Amino acid sequence: MTKQTQTLTGTWLITLLALSANAAQPLWPSLEGRVLCGYQGWFRTPNDAAQAGWRHYMRQHNGVVSPVTDYLPDVSEAAPQDRARLPLTCKEGGFAEVTSSDNPATIDRHFAWMKQYGIDGVMVQRFPTDMYNTTTLTPSAFRASGDRVLQYCRDAAVKYGRSYTLMYDLSGLNAQASEIVITDWKHLVSSGVIRGEQDAAWQHHKSKPLVAIWGIGFNDNRKYDLAACERLVDFFKKEGYAVLLGVPFRWRSLSNDAVSEQRLLDIIRKADVVHSWSVGRYRQEQVNAHTVSVWRDDVAWCQKEGLTFMPVVYPGFSWKNLKDVTTDIPRHDGAFLWSQFEAAKRSGASCAYVAMFDEVDEGTQIFKVNNTPPRGDAFMYQSYGALPSDHYLWLTGQAMQAFRESKPFPPEMPKR
Fold first, then answer.
1. Cα first-last separation, the chain
2. What is the pTM of this model?
3. Apex CA 260: angle with CA 256 and CA 264, to 5°?
4. For range 275-294, the mean pLDDT
5. CA 292 to CA 349: how far, in whole Å?
6. Domain definitions of the chain by residue range
7. Alpha helices (runs of H) in 348-390, residue ranges in sequence order
8. Do 184 and 191 form a contact (C-beta atoms < 8 A)?
9. 194-238: per-residue pLDDT in tens?
């Protein structure tokens, strides 16, 4: 028995044992009617177990420290020992605090919010480029931290009755992408991080455990090719998994952000779920023109091929601190997110994906943020303004409920 299992007490342990006993009957056998969020889980602080510094919070250039996120997480519910103060010079004596993803308390709190607001679950992002020497395929010191985050999500999903699964993000990998991912998967299985049929909280589809692979067919000069992507699909299908593929927004027409190779469609036909990436592709005034008109035909194509289409919706976007890009995609107090849910439902989609639960890097998060963030002479964090910190958690829960109903999705955002 591991130390982590020994710490489980009371109803949590009873629930975990019951779930394991009924693992042949997964709690979440299908994506149909479900809406999952992307969960980056990539934030680190110097005081956490990873000891990897300020990952995804800060950068240092010529001795100057600056933030890379456009929002700060709301840490008001975190214990003092679970917070870390960013080394920023703020005006009027203010300071900025954050939390680490490599902390079970952080992830437990996030999954508790999911249950509170009726959010189904998450796809936990995993970045092999951070965890392996991509030349020798040997693990880096950071892999253990990624393993812990996945385990914390697994345990929290059980505790709060949410689903979770793993999404491999291929970004940054080289020509050995398939070998690196397969090496990592075998490590996760052999070490017990992935529990297979003993993990009833794992999201299934078509009654098979689901695994997601993101980064297939983008035309942004990636170093791995479609052959590597196809090897991954074949591997996971042979392992007995349903496969979700994260593909470009214009995957079906092989245009714009997609490669112009017919082989991409051949690979997609081997999968089970098509997940097209829409973040940054349109604004509020473009939703109808850039979603329904595309997604409706995507749904029809997938239905003809026996696949499930899972569109991506997102609350907004910003890159000011990360890339010093001032052009953002406004949230319109949630109307932008709501309109995309409505478009997804009108397009005939039976499930959806929210990007993202926690990504303050690109300003796509729906979780609670610091609504009174400090400012500095050379930086500024955003907030939800007059809206409550939990507004997007609440709104996402409301949208999920409406998305599942048989009647048309209400075009107007609900009043709280």
1. 46
2. 0.93
3. 110
4. 92
5. 10
6. 35-404
7. none
8. no
9. 998 789 899 999 989 999 999 999 999 999 999 999 999 999 999
